[in-house]
Amino acid sequence: MKDDCLFCKIAKGDIPSATIYEDRYFRVFLDVNPASKGHCLIVPREHFDNIYDLDGETAGRLFALATGVARALRKALSCDGLNLVQNNGKVAGQTVNHFHLHLIPRYEGDQLGLLWKAKHLKEEEMEELRKKIKNAI
Ligand code: 5GP
Ligand code: ZN
């Protein structure tokens, strides 16, 4: 638990949340400012700032849980689709520095602006990027 971390406090239950699921590793609750009806967050109880800090075991458990929450959202809300969003760093839109995964139900015609406009890179640039990232893995 990190002092003064909002999601540590919510995960622990010190700050109330509209919880839909909890176990020893995670709490899942409704986002207080939802992008759509049913927008929820999966938050590990342990503090990780972002994806760079997250360990593989927690990541595996978290994604397994996400599949179950996704199916529950579809069953409960009859949503037409679902976006998983996970922001890391201010420039990427992270406002709470405790790792969390957004599950955002989508509805036909909802007009949420979550998707990007594709860039067109030259073949050489693509190849340079491919090599650079490949060498870093
Ligand atoms: P981020 O922008 O960091 O990816 O997402 C943070 C999310 O946490 C936002 O969507 C925001 O609405 C939500 N949030 C911030 N404070 C609270 C809170 O006190 N309770 C709940 N339930 N959600 C919160
Ligand atoms: Zn925290």
Structural description of this entry:
By secondary structure, the chain is of the alpha+beta class. It has three helices and five strands. A hairpin with a 3-residue loop joins β1 and β2. The structure holds guanosine-5'-monophosphate and zinc ion. The site of guanosine-5'-monophosphate has 12 residues, from β2.
What descriptors fit this protein?
binds guanosine-5'-monophosphate; 137 residues; binds zinc ion; alpha+beta; 5-stranded antiparallel β-sheet
Bound molecules: guanosine-5'-monophosphate, zinc ion
The count of β-strands is: 5
Share of β-strand residues = 15-25%
Q: Total helix count? A: 3
On the 0-100 scale, what is the average pLDDT?
Answer: 97
Topology pattern, helix = H, strand = E: HEEEHEEH
Overall SS class: alpha+beta
Quaternary state of the chains: single chain
Distance between the termini: 30 Å
Radius of gyration: 17 Å
Summarize the main sheet.
5 strands, antiparallel
Low-confidence stretches: none
Write down the overall geometry: globular
- Main sheet: which strands, in order across? 1-2-3-5-4
Helix percentage range: 25-40%
